[in-house]
Amino acid sequence: MQNFTVKLRAQDQGIPPKYSDTTLRVVITDADDQNPKFLRESYSAELPGDGRPGELRTRPEPIKAIDQDEGICAPLQYSIVQSQDTKYFRIHPHSGVITLLTPIGYSDLTNGATLVVKATQVDNPDRYALTTVTLTRLGGIHNDISALAFVQKKFYMRIREDTAVGNRILALPTNKPGKHLKYSIPDPVNSQFFNVGMLGEVILTKPLDYEKMTRHDFQILATDDITNATADVTLEITDVNDWEPRFRETHYEFAIPKSQTLQSRSVPLEGLMIGKVEAADGDRNDKLELSLRGQHAGLFEIDNIGNIYMRPEQLHQLNESVVHLIAIARDSGIPPRSTSVPVTVTMEGVTLAQSSWSNSLLAMFVALVAIFIIIILALICCIVHYKSKTRKTTPALARSNRGHSGVSSANLMTHEKMTSGNGNGATTSSGNVSVLHMKRNGGNVTMANGSYQSNAMGAGISGMGASAILAASLERERERERQRENYAATVRSKYLVSS
Q: Membrane spanning segments where (predicted)?
């Protein structure tokens, strides 16, 4: 399957429900997870009888390998695995054509040779395939009685742990190519993972696991029923990042204890561990890197073993009692893999502490306002009391002045002289009472200013305090004006009666 289509629908909970549809098309891209493969498991060719250099013709077809990842089709490069016979031959890296480089004598390669050809991906050297090319020499002297032997005593190969079962890993050429030899692996453990074919190729029969075994060392036994031969094989397994990190729990919840923050505001929150998350990776050599993500992730930090600590320098910006975070574990494999888990932190301790601190500030503010209001009310009471005292003092003085003025008014004596002729009047004074001089000229009355003196008023003023002098003086002036008006009214009324 290279692609598929999914129909998605988003629907609300209304009545009737409304929805919207869309189509998601997923295109699957091929991954580099397959080794190259030769079109044939083995090839054969004949060496020239005269030993002249030149290209060798392989059967049943030219050597060719392909990348099994069809979506990638990585280019391949051919090479010959080193052995004691490779000095005579060369293979073209792109076409796979084998060429005899140097002339060979009649005594050389009399029993032929077996070459191991390797096809490797140019972009990934860990992806390769092997095949064998059996070379025979025409007219050569065959000595089947010679002892059987491998072309080399030790074979070494690196192999990825994700190599598919059934792949040919390594070829083991002998000095008797093309013969029906029997191969076996004496080691009971490694014989479960590997098998040797009739042509001496090592085949993988069980999946490899780098985390369980990083290296396979075993011996291969070959026999032609006459003689035996052994070779040592070392296969080093290369790690593949085939495990994602895993958390122990699917959801972590932590709470900050009240005792940590409510007892004293002076207790520092730096270094306060609020919890621990546990993560592990199934790959042997991978190291995990932990991090936190979320809106308030800056308030916390996490170390490499999963301990979560609080960072209070930005705590004043927090206005929530519950913080939601995402813990992410990322491994060091190639390519790296990661996984995440939700983390919930209940900030009841810090939130309540902040609330208590805010309430304390509010209480202090209210107390200051209350004290200010009390001071204002006290000032107002003092002012009202002072004004009331002043008003009580002023009317008393006014009543005293009016009493003295009444007596003086009663003792006023008016002397007038009526003339029938020219209307000239006369004035007379009696005691200390001022006498108003009036003169009648025809229908007009002329009054002269007199003087009024009250000994009683003078005596009253001398006994008053400095604070009441001004008020008494003003009241006295007003009383004088009223006396003058009353006197003038009395004079008018008498004049009207006499006239």
A: 361-384
3-state secondary structure of 143: coil
**What is the distance between the alpha carbons of residues 131 and 138, in angstroms, rounded to a whole number?**
23
- DSSP assigned state of 190: G
Note the pTM of the prediction, 2 decimals: 0.40
Distance CA 434, CA 445 (A): 18
How far is residue 412's CA from residue 486's CA, in Å, rounded to a whole number?
Answer: 12
Supply the range of the domain harboring residue 187.
147-238
User: Residues 94-97: contacts with CB within 8 Å, 24+ apart?
Assistant: 95/62, 96/62, 96/63, 96/64, 96/65, 97/55, 97/56, 97/62, 97/63
DSSP conformation letters of 235-282: EEEEP------EES-S-EEEE--HHHHSS-TTS--TT-EEEE--EE-S
Contact 424, 417 (CB under 8 A): yes
- Shared domain for 26 and 132, answered yes or no, is yes
Q: Looking at the structure, do residues 112 and 15 belong to the same domain, yes or no?
A: yes
Both 160 and 280 in a single domain? no
Long-range contacts of 195-200, Cβ-Cβ distance < 8 Å, separation of 24 or more: 196/172, 196/220, 197/168, 199/41, 199/42, 199/132, 199/134, 199/171, 200/114, 200/132, 200/171, 200/172, 200/173, 200/174
Q: Do 269 and 331 belong together in one domain?
A: yes
**Tokens standing for residue 422:** 């020219």
Burial class (CB in 10 A: 0-12, 13-18, 19+), 94: exposed
Q: Are residues 220 and 204 in the same domain?
A: yes
Residue with tokens 């009355």: 445
In angstroms, rounded to a whole number, what is the distance separating the alpha carbons of residues 30 and 261? 55
> For 23-36, what is each residue's pLDDT tens digit?
999 988 877 788 89
Q: What are the pLDDT digits (tens) for 389-415?
A: 776 655 544 444 444 444 344 343 344
Same structural domain, 139 and 12: yes
Q: How many domains does the chain have?
A: 3
**Which of 320, 348, 376 is a domain's end point?**
348
Please tell me the distance from the alpha carbon of residue 416 to that of residue 435, in angstroms, as a whole number: 10
Residue 83: inside a domain: yes
Give dist(CA 227, CA 149) in Å, integer. Answer: 9
Q: What percent of the chain has pLDDT over 70?
A: 73
- CATH value at residue 80: 2.60.40.60
Rounded CA-CA distance 150/164 in Å is 27
| Percent of the chain whose pLDDT exceeds 90 | 19
CA 93/CA 65 separation, integer angstroms = 12
> Could you tell me if 172 and 206 lie in one domain?
yes
